[in-house]
Automatic annotation (TrEMBL):
NCBIfam families: acyl_WS_DGAT (TIGR02946). It comes from Rugamonas brunnea. It comes from the Bacteria. Gene3D superfamilies: Chloramphenicol acetyltransferase-like domain. This is diacylglycerol O-acyltransferase. Pathway: Glycerolipid metabolism; triacylglycerol biosynthesis; Lipid metabolism.
């Protein structure tokens, strides 16, 4: 097991389980046997889904074993709502409880719940598939890709086992692809080894020496070093009710899909990216929630979110493992004007583009996996104290997908929060829609639905202001 994967394995705590949690809403119920067939054909083709994790003082490794799908797939039925209508809150409650429940360590670290009788806000009865996979198996981008591979492009699509070439490619060390554009000399110069990184941590307080070393590097190495300094010396963000020590009890909520075409149109109207619009909407929703709770939101209030960035080279092959870095984005929650907030988010996003912060962050994860667990905990908690939330933004398929003849109506994933971070925000696009999801810790916010319901109004403010500007 790589040191990065090992780092994620060891991050489990009472406050946060390092699981990627997903919910897929199916238009029609699929049979349990149909799901098992898809798992056998697609999931179990990859060794990590057939292997348990073994650990000792020297490290961790994968040990392949016979898989009984009855140990990994649970079928249950959601209770009817008291009024016989929408029981989405019950489904969200179930997802929240499962988000805090550890996976069985004697088995491969994944489990799925097939949930019947899910009544939506439109009154239609659907089926939900709740997916839980430990982060040491792979990151969110890889797991969404593997999960989506269980679906076909047509109702009568037949699943086929991936080729041996694809399976072997999935097990390759992602570092080789990530560092390919950087010369060996540069890699040596920036010293990404565990020993040098730990040594550089002792140099934080000796900035003249750090600056002197930066001057010896080439342009790429200089940028890497500067981003490392920024990452390791960043100030804590503002203290709000969303920042604090989690207790491990989770609450989950997600929105109904927002037309992606509308988001694209607004991003074009303002001359910014779709991501800028979505991130500004998140900032506005957090601000509105804090004010609704009676909190004073200072104009200088800033909420830092750690955004996972995919570092894989696009080569057509699915890669498992963890090959991503974390980019710290500071949301200007204190700005009241929606357009000013959007412009500031755009400016900050542009500053992050072209940097090496994500690569530096991944090197930190690699170091954490090679250090004693106590040291790993201290370092990860240091970074966790600098942020309020983890936010992921995953682009999904643009066209509808099907499993066993049933259409996938909605899909949402959450990445785990590490250390003392207790808030996770997810944005996922699929089939012409984009959805917001949030997971909150009981110690910080017990009503995530009151945050979720504020995303769309914040977006609508940008729509209205864009229309007024045209007039």
């Amino acid at each position: 097991m790589s040191t990065v994967d090992t780092a994620w394995l060891r991050m489990d705590s009472e406050g946060n389980q390092m699981m990627i949690v997903g919910v897929a809403i199916m238009s029609q119920p699929i049979a349990l046997d149909g799901l098992k067939e898809a798992l056998t054909t697609r999931f179990l083709a990859y060794r990590r889904f057939r292997s348990r994790v073994v650990q000792d003082v020297t490290g961790a490794w994968w040990q392949e074993q016979e898989v009984n799908l009855d140990d990994h797939v649970v079928n249950l039925r959601l209770h009817d709502a008291p009024d016989g209508g929408c029981n989405k809150p019950a489904l969200q409650g179930l997802v929240g409880r499962l988000s805090q429940q550890p996976l069985d360590p004697v088995l491969p670290l994944w489990q799925m719940h097939l949930v019947d009788n899910c009544v939506g806000e439109d009154g239609k009865v659907r089926q939900a598939l709740i997916v839980r996979i430990h982060h040491c198996i792979a990151d969110g981008v890889a797991l969404v890709g593997v999960f989506m591979s269980m679906f076909g492009a047509h109702p009568d699509s037949q699943l086929h086992r991936p080729s041996e070439v694809a399976v072997e490619a999935a097990e390759e060390n992602p570092w080789e692809q990530i560092l390919l554009p950087i010369t060996a000399t540069t890699v040596k110069a920036i010293d990404l080894s565990s020993a040098m990184w730990l040594k550089s941590m002792r140099l934080w307080t000796d900035m003249p020496q750090m600056v002197g070393k930066i001057g010896q590097l080439g342009q790429t190495a200089t940028k890497l070093a500067l981003d490392a300094v920024k990452l390791t010396t960043m100030d804590s963000d503002s203290a709000t009710r969303l920042k604090g020590k989690p207790n491990g009890r989770k609450h989950v909520a997600w929105s109904e899909p927002l037309p992606l075409s509308e988001v694209k149109a607004i991003s074009k109207a303002y001359g910014c990216s779709i991501n800028d619009v979505l991130m500004a909407s998140v900032a506005g929703a957090l601000r509105a929630y804090l004010r609704a709770c009676g909190d004073t939101v200072d104009p200088a209030c800033q909420v830092r979110v750690m955004v996972p960035v995919n570092l894989r080279k696009a080569d057509g092959h699915q890669k498992l493992g963890n090959a991503f870095g974390l980019v710290p984005l500071v949301l200007p929650v204190g700005l009241e004007d929606p357009v000013a907030r959007l412009r500031e988010v755009q400016r900050r996003m542009d500053e992050l583009k072209g940097g090496y912060t994500a690569l530096v962050a991944m090197s930190v994860l690699g170091v954490l996996g090679a250090t004693p667990k106590q040291v790993q905990n201290e370092i990860q908690n240091y970074f966790a104290r600098k942020a309020t939330a983890v936010m992921s933004n995953v682009p999904g398929p643009r066209t509808p997908l099907y499993m066993a003849g049933s259409q996938l109506d909605q899909v949402m994933f959450w990445v785990p929060q590490s250390g003392d971070i207790g808030i996770g925000v997810s944005i996922l696009s699929y089939n012409g829609g984009v959805q917001f999801g949030i997971v909150t810790d009981d110690a910080l916010a017990r009503d995530p639905e009151n945050i979720i319901r504020r995303f769309e109004p914040e977006f609508e403010k940008l729509v209205l202001l864009a229309l007024m500007d045209e007039v």
